[in-house]
Amino acid sequence: MQFKRVLVFYNEQKTQNKPLAERVAAWLTAHGKTAHVATSFEKLPQTDLLICMGGDGVMLRCAREAAALDVPILGVNCGTLGFLAACEKNDFETTLTDLTNGKLNLQTRNMLDVCVRFTNEETQELLALNDCVLRADKSRALTVQAHFNGRELPPYFGDGVPVSTPTGSTAYALAAGGPIVAPGVEGLLVTPICPHTLTQRPILLPADGKLELIPVLKTPLDGADLTIDGQEIVSLPPGSHVHIAQSSHPARFFISPNRDFLTLLKRKLNWGCR
After folding, report:
1. How many other CB atoms are found less than 10 A from the CB of residue 161?
2. Can you tell me the distance from the alpha carbon of 183 to that of 251, in angstroms, rounded to the nearest whole number?
3. Quick one: pLDDT band at residue 258, thresholds 50, 70, 90?
4. Is 56 a catalytic residue?
5. What is d(CA 17, CA 250) in angstroms, rounded to the nearest whole number?
6. What pLDDT digit, counting tens, does each position of 200-240 carry?
7. What pLDDT does residue 225 have?
8. Which one is catalytic: 48, 56, 137, 159?
9. Pairing state of beta strands 49-54 and 232-236?
10. What is the rounded end-to-end Cα distance, in angstroms, of the chain?
């Protein structure tokens, strides 16, 4: 893939990453690219490549911005885990050289289209890379009615319901007892959080279907929250419906051959270690 215009993004609240972002931009400039260091996505529509300086949280934010524009992302891990990054911060020169020489793989990650329908007929459209999580707005159990492709599912009663992509299966869903799903698998993973029953289990639904979640709120004082990738929160008053489907706009990440999914499970999450 050829690229000339590069946006080097870092979180404005993580000022310690600015010097490294500037070093990355200087390297790109020295190699004939047009590079801009930014803390906003204003120049993203005119960009061929988005380089994300940060941890997985910043990568999630970048993915939601870049997917609809079909801009690929290369992550330089400046955080703790760096599960989605192409390299660690000390290896950026080697990784950019490999990218220039066509030695990196471009991987597609499916995302979720989330549409919230309120009782006043207004809607809110959102995009998620990891998951959307429906919970009560107070610390108590919540009943959630569910339908898939119009067919009623057993209601969920517990602390909440995350709906995850395969990418998000190693995030909140994993902590809630869900399975690890490889990125190449397509599906909507529904994992109840602390269900008040012994029979409510995680389920992987077909990716070409549509899931509807309806929080059961008994009084006008009750409410629920919908969280997108753990970063965006939408308050749901009584009567709100949440519609979830696989998005037609996937995120695209450059990855190094030595950072494939199974290798990262062992290296980053200590998969199978005794």
Report:
1. 25
2. 12
3. confident
4. yes
5. 27
6. 999 999 999 999 999 998 777 888 999 999 999 999 999 99
7. 96
8. 56
9. unpaired
10. 41
Q: Of 81, 67, 75, 63, which Cα lies nearest the Cα of 20?
A: 75
Q: CB–CB of 240/116 below 8 Å?
A: yes
Give pLDDT tens digits for 144-175: 999 999 999 999 999 999 999 999 999 999 99
User: Which two tokens mark 199?
Assistant: 């029979």
C-alpha span between 62 and 272 (Å, rounded)? 31
- Tokens for 79, please give them: 């955080």
Taking the CB of residue 29, how many other CB atoms lie within 10 A of it?
13
- Integer Cα distance of 102 and 95 in angstroms: 10
The span from the CA of 65 to the CA of 271, in Å, is: 31
**Mean pLDDT across the chain, nearest whole number?**
94
Question: Strand locations in the chain, DSSP E?
Answer: 5-10, 34-38, 49-54, 73-77, 87-88, 105-109, 112-117, 123-128, 131-136, 142-148, 151-158, 161-164, 188-190, 203-205, 210-215, 224-228, 232-236, 241-246, 251-255
**How large is the C-alpha radius of gyration of the chain?**
20
Q: Is residue 167 helix, strand or coil?
A: helix
CB 247 within 8 A of CB 127: yes
Alpha helix locations (H) across the chain? 18-30, 56-66, 92-100, 172-175, 261-269
Instruction: Find tokens 């300086």 and name the residue.
Output: 53
Rounded CA separation 70/50 (Å):
10
For residue range 10-43, what is the model confidence (pLDDT) as tens digits?
999 999 999 999 999 999 999 999 999 999 999 9
